[in-house]
Amino acid sequence: MGITQPLHRWAQQTPERKAVIDGGTGTTFHELRERVAKVAGALRGLGVGADDRVAILALNSSRYLECLSAIPWAGGVLNPVNIRWSAAEIAFSLDDSQTCVLFVDDTFAPLVPALRAASSSVREVVHMGTAPTGPGTHDYEELLAAAEPIPDANRGGDDLAGVFYTGGTTGFPKGVMLSHDNLLASAMGGLVATAAFRIVPDARVLHAAPLFHIAGFGVSLMTSIVGIPQVVLPFFEPEQVAATIRRERITEVFLAPTMLQMVLEHPRFAEYDVSSLRLLTYGASPITAALLERVLKALPGTALVQAYGQTELSPLATLLMPQDHLDADPIRLRSAGRPCHHAEVRILGSDGREAARGDVGEIVSRGDHVMLGYWNRPDESAQALRDGWMHTGDLGFMDTDGYVTVVDRLKDMIVTGAENVYSAEVENAVNAHPDIAGCAVIGLPDPTWGERVHAVVVLHPDRELTAEQVRAHVKTLIAGYKAPRSVEFVDALPLTAAGKVRKSVLRERTNRA
Known about the structure:
Layout: H1 5-13, E1 18-22, E2 25-28, H2 29-45, E3 53-57, H3 62-73, E4 77-80, H4 87-96, E5 99-104, H5 112-118, E6 124-127, E7 138-139, H6 140-146, E8 160-165, E9 175-179, H7 180-198, E10 205-207, H8 214-226, E11 230-232, H9 238-248, E12 252-255, H10 257-265, E13 279-283, H11 289-298, E14 303-309, E15 316-320, H12 322-327, H13 330-333, E16 338-339, E17 344-348, E18 361-366, E19 373-374, H14 378-384, E20 385-386, E21 389-398, E22 404-409, E23 414-416, E24 419-421, H15 423-431, E25 436-446, E26 450-459, H16 467-475, E27 486-489, H17 503-512
Parallel strand pairs: 1-11, 3-4, 3-5, 5-6, 6-7, 10-11, 10-12, 12-13, 13-14, 26-27
Antiparallel strand pairs: 1-2, 8-9, 9-19, 14-15, 15-16, 17-18, 18-21, 20-21, 21-22, 23-24, 25-26
């Protein structure tokens, strides 16, 4: 089975049902299959063959969803490009993966000359926007109109489906190779757990998170499998999320915690009826206890699911289910839930053995969802994939009921005065202050302590705090040695497109200061 199979099923079973809604325009499953077959034919005409990489550099759109099916349909391999990257970073990913064809929309068409100059692998560029097409670039609709539909290449199993580049929060991005089986195993595992909340009357899923990210892609694949209409926003904008939920009667959405916070804090949020929302999945970065409490109050009729995983796991490893949120146990709510049906998860101690329940160690996972490896990085692949397990680089513990709590990234753990300090724990304590909108905690070199705990803090508008007030607040919640020894106030935190804080940027910026 491959990732194009769901489109065949729903085009056969419900051909006139809406598959995609973009800007008020709907495309049926029959129409979507016909367009995908033609886009695939156009790709074949551009020389795309088996296993050739094809990139998409664009905002969310119905055409983006078409390409996600058309590229494997033509026998190619997906390379969804991070839209936050510079031209140099994008060119690196194109050449690193030896991408031969690049799709761009109106937003990113101006980058084409720079990308052509920097990339040696890209042969053809297809403009999938509505603005005039530049020289040497193919127009998407003209290609589609001239193309003959081709049969599905029927890729599946261990065939490479995509090279998904990591977000680059801890150094230069790596291309994660995911097979059709990897992606479908994760999607099916997520569906088994959430079907009762996802498959509801008049279901509609909203894409507000970027489709290039594995979380957005995963939601799209799960949605395709069950044949639910997908409503597309080109990019995340807080008020548009609330307005679209009301207008389209959206029943499901995925939002990173930073996105969720911006929606709830928008001054007009209360004006929008979002009561149609039945399932809200959040993940891709930790959520604070304060924000989660606010979400529970703001969306009392919505089932909440927290998803934990990473690109290398296609992406799901654990889920914190709606009933766990209703129990409102503060310890349970800080967890990332229990392993999905498709995933085996363990905690390994420093000796490589499974840790006792409650002891912190590295989170590892195995199953059909585990990546094939890193593109052209055999040594790093071997380091990550040891003894059949994917070593996530995340630290956590598992309780006696099998719930996994993530305490930090292995690289983000701070060792200060010979004590281990987990940045996530400190961030939760800092964020509990009512005047603080967000924070990130990092370790900085310190001549006395080896490393010191440093907090980068964003305040709510018109609020004022001193560093000592932040420290005093934290000490009321956690041990004194974990409290930040230094505090920096900023207007905003640097984020990836998926809403993760770029701690490497904070370290570089702070060390230069």
